[in-house]
Predict the structure of Protoheme IX farnesyltransferase.
Amino acid sequence: MVVKTVVAYRNLIRDYILLTKPGIVVLVLITCLTGMYLAAKGFPSPWLVFWCLLGTGLASAGSAVLNQFFDRDIDAIMSRTKSRPLPSGSVSPLSALIFGSILLITSFYIMAVFINPVATFFTLTASFFYVVVYTLALKRRSPLATEIGGISGALPPVIGYTAVTGKLSIEPLILFLIMFVWQPPHFWVLAVKYAEDYKKAGVPTLPVVKGIFQTKVRTLFYTAMLFPLSLLPALYGMAGKVYFFTAFVLSFIYLILTLRFFFSKSSKGMFLFFYSIIYLALLFSMMVFDMTR
Ligand code: HEM
Ligand SMILES: CC(C)=CCC/C(C)=C/CC/C(C)=C/COP(=O)(O)OP(=O)(O)O
């Protein structure tokens, strides 16, 4: 009896953690911390780091929970998502709505009280774009949802940077641009693999609307754009030679893998998808490493 209750609680906690898309939260936090590091030109005040990472992490987590609350009908149709906590029935929609709202309200409170108005504004904007603009307004209507939704995903380093400086400048905009251009190819590789799934659920992703070939062309185009963009931090004095060299090699490998995906007859590019995540994590970590040396 006791063992059963403990297992039930453990499963419930696991489901609530899964609802927050924890893998994405980790990468969001790495990019946010990089923004803070570059702004402070070294390790910023530990309390600022603590509150800013907590606030940004809660915003990312809360937005992901609300995204799954609103998407629970289409998530139940797609094989990739049908075992998520909401479609599988292990968490009720009302509980998810309350949980996501509490996470978001706590995030905005922390950012407003412990950080500053500019970073709070960008946190609100990121959440608004993910939940309202991407999930509610665009995802079921247009393939442009991916690019416009990318505004949300590109804001975490801007939140980190402005948490330290309190104002916008060219450096956070460069980080924004890198992340903005990184997101569509990151997603389209998956969208190609699951094109049938998205079609069945009525989600007009690029492969569903324009076909696999057009999507592969655009994936290649965005990855090619990412190459020069990834070098900008070194050219603007935000990072040094070690970063420049690493970014060059990482972007070169990314381009080669994307070319392989482009010419491949298969629509499965899971290694490329995995590489996109490693790429961004290493790129941003290298900026911090080069600053700390
Ligand atoms: C337009 C924006 C984006 C789209 C459409 C998108 C889409 C996706 C999809 C569909 C998955 C697979 C999830 C699954 O298998 O259940 C995924 C995984 C992932 N994404 Fe993205 N993503 C976007 C932006 C971002 C951003 C901004 C980050 C972080 C900075 C990120 C980090 C990750 C990570 C770490 C994973 C693998 C871990 C996981 O599946 O939870 N993504 N993304
Ligand atoms: C601070 C803050 C709010 C940060 C959020 C950053 C972030 C990760 C944004 C990405 C948003 C996005 C459009 C995800 C799309 O996946 P989807 O939800 O359509 O994917 P799915 O099909 O797997 O559910």
Summary: The radius of gyration is 19 Å.
